[in-house]
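no rush on this but wanted to send it before i forget. theres a chain ive been looking at and ive put its sequence and its fold in token form underneath. i want to understand how the tokens follow from the sequence so walk me through it. thanks a lot i owe you, the record is right below:
>
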Amino acid sequence: MNSKLLRHHAPLGALFLIVLGLVAAGPLHTPAGYHAFADQRLLWGMPRAMDVLSNLPFLLVGLVGLVGVGRGRWLAAPVRWSMRAFFLAIMLTAAGSWWYHLQPDDVRIVWDRLPIALACGALLAAVMEECSSVRPPLGWLPTLLLASGASVALTSDALWLAPGDLRPYLALQLTLLVVVPLLQWRAGLAWSQRRLWLAAVGAYVLAKLLEVADAPVMHLTGMLSGHTLKHVFAALGAWLVWRAFRLRKLAGPAVEAGAGRPAAQWTMRGVSS
């Protein structure tokens, strides 16, 4: 297979493998004891204070991004609205996670997952608007926000349909981490901008690993748990996304030489649909 053919089919192939893998895995549920976080310390009467307060970076990054996008004239309107929705969802992530960590249980975790899913959906919409000529009737943002909300609804044990199944929620995140970099590669976005996205992916992957290693990290540091650091690195990932879109304003959405024009029509001020 030549490189151009690989480049063209890589995003769809990766999506197919993600779906195939999750279908083969069968229903996935929240692990037993997930809500028993390693750091149970009180601060000013606040339970699990470090896991709660470590959500403040989400609030800060979301505010910086929301204000920074502003009118966002260097971005096409659908991309601009998607990025506004992304940073608003990042701010809501701070509130949802704060609420959940004050009293972790199966009910409150839905409000922790929902803004995360909406942030993923909004960011995926921004990339699809830029890198794909395909567009659903309602546009990518409403479509993916609805799909993101549905993915969280399916994680609830209260539903009779696929009760507590995490696979749609995980599929959304894996698409963002794996398929989106391939879409940007196919569209010919310059390496100077794609590398910031890959750095954001790396920060989020590290955040998920820290989440799994919650107690060992707490034992190793004696001060900070893996889950606390997860919040910090996930917020760092969101900040790197902002840097990537900020770079568009400074340098324009440069396209790799020889990559051909992407599906959407690049302009020096953004992408025209």
Remarks:
- The domain at 46-272 is CATH 1.20.1070.10 (Rhopdopsin 7-helix transmembrane proteins).
